[in-house]
Amino acid sequence: MGKKYTYYPGCSSESSGSHLDVSLRAVAPKLGIELEDLNDWNCCGASVAHVEAGALPASALSARNLANARAQGNQDVLTACAACYLKTHHTNEKIRDKPGFKEKINEALGAAGQSYDGDLHVRHACEVIVNDVGLDKIKEQVTNPLEGLKVAGYVGCQTVRPFAGTEGGGDYDTYEDPEFLDDFIRSTGAEAVEFDSKTACCGGAIALMSPDRTLGLIKKILDEAKEKEADCIATPCPLCQQNVEMYQAAVNKEYGTDFQIPVVFYSQLMAVAFGMDVNKDACLDRNFISADVIAQKARK
Amino acid sequence: MTANMAATIPGQSARKYDLGFARWVYENIEGGDKLSMCMQCGVCSGSCPLGTEMDYGPRKLFMMVRAGMKDAVLKANTMYNCTSCYSCVVRCPRGVPVQYILQDLGRAAARMGYQEAKTTDNARFAKAFIWSTRKFGRTDERLFTFKYYLSFGLGEAIKKAMANMSIAIKLVKTKRMHLGMPHRIKGTKDLNAILAKAAEIEKREQGI
């Protein structure tokens, strides 16, 4: 039995990022992580809600989730989504540290008879794997090492920025050259290629609202992955995964390229390397650019 | 302190300066109190993934805030090309939370009635997004996306939906888009009460 965390899956877990959720739930017990779903969780608002609803209402979305988590009892709230992590962690820090903020948030929560004083710890799944689990534990679980698989570790933005280097964020990596993802990749037996675009931006939500503005950003990431002869790109972020996979066809059309690079989550690599079911657990059938190369390279 | 003073520089007609604007930003925008720390080094603009799409990069925009160029700042497209990558936030040597300020400025522009702010893709997208949050408590990627498309009119919505049909089909086939009813939380009533109260508090504090 591992350590218990209140798990906040986030909206993408029920849709475009379902393969992160399913594969993480599959590998979690092997890493000693016990996930207990957050009761009646709502949307975090991501980088979008603020624009229409305002700063305090956007924070109130996270505050309701935190109040629900407080009632559940576990000290640590774990989320695997970059945006959920950023918004929830940030709100939590502001409630705890920003003068006058807790009072305002609690006045809002009071409209539903709830309250929260900022004493939980909101953590990213990757930080938990680095700090609570450790790389040795990943390596111990590998039964089918991904030998010869070349992976471009694409961290993206909000998984590390702006909290990975802060005490509250677990101080688990740097902003400019994070190494945790390459460490995860190597722990599964795969090769992590040098990837300068590891913290480049995919365009975030702007890619969804106006892809014309962001195809160039996605192309740069794909260009380097191809140049480094990566078999696939691995990322921790649901929006990065979605954008870099979903818009490859549009990039090809716009720039006359022929990218066909699978984009997977680190947890999918782990599930394959741990010898779990490639579809039921690793969700390789949920990638629409075929990621079968991962299963093919896994030593049987 | 917030008295508006209009000033013009001789020889530069039609450029309006609102000398109370910087003060308002310092006091009401999240992170605005740090704006006076900006030393105009340009690390933010140089780090910005979509800086090339912006009317003015963050560095210039911040100088314009300090100069009181209220209209030009609030009509700029800068805020709507911020992807929330937070490169500026972690790199700023003076600890100015650039992204937070841009985000709040964009919203302030919309609240103050600037048409430029109300008609951006971002404003339409955010409106559809928060509609889903309020209605279901969660983001229904299918419904809010179509609602976003509809903000451009029915004809345009159908065109956009058709253009993205092959992606939608792939998402359904790979179990990343479901076909049933929206996922919804039990506490939508509570959530909306909390949101309404938070909006009321913010209005009371910011005065817009």
How big is the Rg of chain B?
Answer: 20 Å
- The proportion of residues in beta strands of chain B is 5-15%
**Which oligomerization state do the chains in this entry correspond to?**
heterodimer
**Average of pLDDT of chain B:** 92
Strand order across the biggest sheet of chain A?
2-1-3-4
Which CATH first-tier class of the largest domain in chain A would you pick?
A: Alpha Beta
Shape of chain B: globular
**Any guess at the CATH architecture of the largest domain in chain B?**
Orthogonal Bundle
Q: Describe the largest sheet of chain A.
A: 4 strands, parallel
Q: Cα-atom Rg of chain A, whole angstroms?
A: 19 Å
Please give the order of strands in the largest beta sheet of chain B: 1-2
Structural summary, described in words:
The complex is a heterodimer of chains A (300) and B (208). Chain A has helices at residues 18-27, 49-53, 55-72, 82-97, 101-109, 125-133, 135-141, 180-187, 204-209, 215-227, 238-246, 248-255, 266-273, 292-297, and strands at 3-7, 33-37, 76-79, 121-124, 150-153, 191-192, 232-235, 263-265. With 300 residues, chain A is an alpha/beta fold. Chain A folds into two domains: 3-125, Glutathione S-transferase Yfyf (Class Pi), Chain A, domain 2; 135-297, Rossmann fold, CATH 3.40.50.11810. The longest helix of chain B is centred in the last third of the chain and has 19 residues, at 188-206. Mean pLDDT of chain B is 92; it is low at 1-5. Chain B has helices at residues 21-28, 43-47, 58-67, 70-75, 87-91, 98-111, 115-118, 121-136, 141-150, 154-163, 165-173, 188-206, and strands at 6-9, 12-18. In chain B, β1 (6-9) and β2 form a beta hairpin. Chain B is built from twelve helices and two strands, in the order ββαααααααααααα. Chains A and B meet through α2, α3, α5 and α9 of A and α5, α6, α8, α9 and α11 of B.
